[in-house]
Design a protein that fits this description.
44% helix
């Protein structure tokens, strides 16, 4: 996270996060780095489906058809966060950290959306462990992907 934050600061790239099952852990982690206030715009924690609809404007139909644990919702979370927070970069996290299957999707299934200057990619992942471990793995994976995309 430190390396990512330094890169964002050095290149004056604004960032935000939109988090569901990670409940703000990405924001807390990046927000604790000295100097990050130069580029960190803030975060949205949209845990419940109705908040994804009301705050982000994700349609009820998309959530009903695809589920909140889906590529489509991760994509829209990243795009909408970038727009709302006026950030060049947005990362989103949606998934099932357990303890039980949700929407007929297994525990550990996660989708991470990354929007850089309005171009969005989504990564599907499946992690093992408890709720905290799954969230930590998702954040580490998201940071790794951000660095790969930005360094290219």
């Amino acid at each position: 996270m430190q390396e990512l934050a330094r890169y964002l600061i050095d290149h004056d790239l604004s960032i935000t996060s939109c988090e569901s099952f990670t409940v703000g852990r990405f924001a807390s982690s990046i927000g604790s780095i000295p100097g990050i206030s130069k580029v960190f715009r803030g975060a949205l924690v949209t845990y419940q489906s109705e908040i994804k609809e009301k705050i982000l404007g994700i349609s009820h139909e998309v959530i009903q058809k695809k589920g909140v644990v889906s590529e489509e919702v991760a994509f829209l979370m990243a795009q909408k966060a970038s727009e709302i927070m006026e950030a060049e970069i947005a990362i989103s996290f949606t998934g099932n950290a357990g303890p039980e299957a949700m929407e007929n999707k297994p525990v550990g299934l996660c989708y991470i959306g990354i929007c850089i200057r309005k171009e969005t990619k989504v990564y599907a992942c499946h992690f093992q462990g408890d709720r905290t471990s799954i969230a930590q793995q998702a954040i580490a994976y998201g940071v790794m992907r951000l660095k790969e995309l930005l360094w290219d």
